[in-house]
Automatic annotation (TrEMBL):
Record InterPro entries: EF_Hand_1_Ca_BS, M28_fam, Peptidase_M28
Species: Flavivirga eckloniae
GO terms for MF: metalloexopeptidase activity
Cited Pfam families: Peptidase_M28
Domain Peptidase M28 intervals: 108-320
Name this protein carries in UniProt: Peptidase M28
Swiss-Prot/TrEMBL GO biological process terms: proteolysis
Amino acid sequence: MKKLIILLYISLPVIACSSQNKKASKNTGRAIDYAKTITADELKEALYIFASDEFEGRKTGEPGQKKAIEFIKNHYMSVGVPSPIAEGDYFQEIPESYFPNKVKASENVLAYIKGTEKPDEVVIISAHLDHIGVTKKGEVYNGADDDGSGTVAILEMAEAFKIASEKGHGPIRSVLFLHVTGEEMGLYGSRYYTDKDPIFPLENTVANLNIDMIGRVDRKHKNNRNYLYLIGSDKLSKELHNISEKVNKKYINMKFDYTYNDDDDPNRFYYRSDHYNFAKNNIPVIFYFNGTHADYHRPSDTPDKIQYDLLETRARLIFHTAWELANRDERVKVD
């Protein structure tokens, strides 16, 4: 009898560990089903609204930006993705005093899916919601690619995670959908989140996947559009880089271009989007980027120029990567 009790005692942790591994594996196997809910048609429908003239170029603190945050909030409420701040309160308020040059108070928008087993650990998917505004001649900087493409991609990913949760396949870790303001004027929204008011403690933040322009093709890749620039994936965690590569080969098989990841890159894109405020806090990051084009920071960056089938593929890729990070037994290691 004593031998049987000892045997059972020894086997219990193994059973528990095996159960957890099976759950993670099961969730990973389901990823492709939920990725398919991210569609070009829904991305297009959302972007034609978000990057319309009605939103007046979404300049930080201005009326068009307020319309943009209401659009994002209403989307989350309509699909039942809650806020981590308080019920019905999706806005992280940033006071006017935080901005330079008398820029008016602004807001980040936050929504999340709570983790089933490790809710205190969080994977953050981010994109900036602001753009440049309106020219002196009254032309609207629509910012369809910059960064309307990243914004609507996150909305679709959040909906996919929500559908998965409703079917009993919620992520093991929490996933935060973070729409930041003030990027165009110096990464102010993401800096406010990391430096002033991290809703989830930075030490519990597993990784940041940042999306800034994923709806177009640059000149270098005009003859092979199945690509994406990745920046920063190996700078803090070789494991994150390897996971990213493995996920891509398994689900999408897109060409990853690491040109701008070079430490000597004269463009210094690694320092120029919102992931940097996480990286400076020792949080592993990946920055997804399609490169610049002729309409970059011009009123001609309009929704009709987005390649929606490509936006769908890229959004699914990032969703798969987030899914893997949220469902692994162990969080990615920082080198």
